[in-house]
Design a protein that fits this description.
Elements lengths: L6 H17 L2 H17 L1 H8 L5 H12 L5 H12 L6 H15 L2 E8 L5 H15 L2 E8 L6 E6 L2 E6 H14 L4
Parallel strand pairs: 1-2
Antiparallel strand pairs: 1-3, 3-4
Helix pairs in contact: 1-2, 1-6, 2-6, 4-5
């Protein structure tokens, strides 16, 4: 289960994950979930179609079936049709994204975020990832982000692990210490 997701999203994802694992098609289904999630991100018209209240669920299901039936696994198509039939279109993208979490955990890969003030080069990223993987004994899939407000240094988040070595955090701690200090 993904503790960052709702029980409803986790239950649909768990059902898809378990069925895909049982049939030996987990990697294929996870790839298809990633593809459709990307399509929904890139195509606002597709999202609008799925969310349109004036188009019946039956019509949405028919169009989706025609679109996906030749290139997508029947198991994946069944989930999409079920979500449409039950009127769960608001959680489709979350279920698809959550499938990546389940797939990664199955392969002992942990999603992480690294935030720096400036963009790091490929060599720096590789060295940092290798060092973190050795230190934490984890396989990491890292999303790299930049945020000028960290001023400098690195903030690492992975599950309930937070390593904050940013200048902004050090300044915050210094300020807190100074406010607590007694002045004579």
């Amino acid at each position: 289960m993904n503790p960052a997701e709702s029980p409803l999203v986790n239950s649909y994802t768990q059902a898809l994950y378990s069925a895909a694992l049982e049939r030996g098609v987990l990697d294929e289904i996870a790839g298809q979930a990633r593809d459709v999630h990307s399509l929904m991100q890139a195509q606002p018209r597709f999202r609008a179609f799925l969310g349109a209240p004036n188009i019946s669920r039956a019509e949405k299901e028919r169009v989706l079936t025609v679109m996906l039936k030749d290139s997508f696994h029947p198991l994946f198509l069944s989930l999409m049709r079920l979500l449409i039939r039950r009127g769960r279109l608001l959680i489709v993208r979350r279920v698809l994204r959550n499938m990546e979490f389940f797939h990664d955990r199955h392969h002992d890969i942990y999603q992480a975020i690294i935030i720096t003030a400036v963009e790091l080069g490929a060599d720096e990223r590789k060295r940092m990832q290798d060092r973190l993987e050795r230190h934490l004994n984890l396989n990491l899939k890292i999303s790299w982000r930049t945020d000028p407000s960290v001023v400098g240094g690195v903030r690492f988040l992975c599950g309930d692990i937070l390593i904050d070595r940013t200048i902004s955090d050090q300044l915050f701690r210094l300020r807190s210490d100074m406010l607590r200090a007694k002045v004579y």
